[in-house]
Specification:
About 40% of the residues lie in helices and about 15% in strands. It has helices at about 50-60, 80-95, 105-110, 115-125, 140-145, 150-160, 180-195, 210-220, 225-240, 265-280, and strands at about 20-25, 25, 45, 70, 100-105, 125-135, 165-175, 200-205, 245-250, 260. The strands form two sheets. Strands 1-4-5-6-7-8-9-10 form an eight-stranded mixed beta sheet. The longest helix has 18 residues, at about 265-280.
Length: about 290
């Protein structure tokens, strides 16, 4: 019998493609962002620790050489420090070759934990926190019902940095539509410069049927960016970034054009490459709409 029984669709960052995935929680504790349908059909709950412990032990026997584990679902970091400590201890016992455990975290989760608590979790191999920043614009974050202000995002991220846990931030290209594009690019760059994350991942907005954002588009209250406008927005944002040592990736299936760079040394090269693509607008240069996905 397969040692892990998953509930519903499972989502993970692109960089966790080779990680063992365990559901410590089901769904997302916030689950109110207007653009997101990932956990629309899941009611949030914490997994029973006894049930999860049995799963961890069985998985450890099946895949003892596992090096990386991702704790799903939407924000396992919402669990109390005590529960996370217990889960991490179980993982360290079950997987002797374990190098890193990673989680999604909401901004609210980061603000509920002190730097000392996060440092304790780091000592148990919590080695990456993925934070959905989405935008640095306060008005846009309010509009999409993110549940946090830019200032709260920065405060939470600071605690992660103080605990010496690598922080991977996700931004959604096109989130503000055509009218909000310039503000989205400018304010996101400003907030990223303040946070100075180790990793930056870029998604491109997809309008998902059933979401509040889809209704806004249908009603004509939001005009989505086209593919070339998406690239122009990326260029605007990257031009204003000043990060110390950040690995940048736009390799998600939603992106029209795969991009990668170390922004401390490749920023100007990336801007030049984007400018070249925007000038040429060669047919077939971008991923077609049919091949984009979450």
């Amino acid at each position: 019998m397969y040692p892990i029984q998953y509930e519903g669709d499972i989502f993970r960052p692109p960089s966790e493609a080779r990680s063992l995935i365990l559901q410590a929680t089901i769904g997302c504790s916030h689950n109110r962002c207007t653009f997101c349908a990932m956990y629309m059909f899941k009611k949030f709950r914490e997994r029973d620790l006894g049930e999860l412990e049995k799963e961890i032990v069985a998985a450890g026997r099946t895949w003892p050489y596992t090096r990386r584990i991702f704790l799903a679902d939407g924000n396992a970091l919402t669990l109390s420090t005590e529960k996370l400590q217990h889960i991490l201890q179980l993982l360290n016992e079950a997987f002797p070759h374990l190098e890193r455990v990673s989680v999604y975290g909401n901004p609210q989760d980061l603000l509920q934990k002190e730097s000392s608590e996060l440092a304790l979790l780091r000592s148990l191999k919590l080695g990456m926190i993925y934070l959905g920043l989405e935008s640095g614009s306060g008005s846009l974050l309010e509009e999409v019902n993110k549940g946090a202000t830019p200032e709260e995002m920065a405060r939470g991220a600071k605690r992660v940095k103080e605990a010496a846990i690598p922080l991977s931030i996700t931004v959604i290209n096109g989130l503000g539509g055509r009218d909000g594009s310039v503000e989205h690019a400018r304010e996101t760059a400003r907030l990223l410069n303040e946070i100075d994350p180790e990793y930056l991942g870029l998604l491109s907005l997809m309008i998902i049927p059933g979401t509040t954002m889809h209704r806004r588009v249908e009603e004509g209250r939001l005009t989505p960016l086209g593919p070339w406008e998406m690239l122009q927005e990326i260029k605007m944002m990257v031009e204003q970034l000043s990060l110390s040592n950040c690995l940048f990736r736009a390799n998600h299936a939603s992106n029209y054009l795969p991009l990668k760079a170390i922004l401390s040394k490749d920023r100007e090269t990336l801007v030049a490459a984007l400018e070249d693509v925007l000038q040429r607008k060669a047919p077939g240069a971008l991923r077609s709409e049919d091949y984009r996905m979450l």
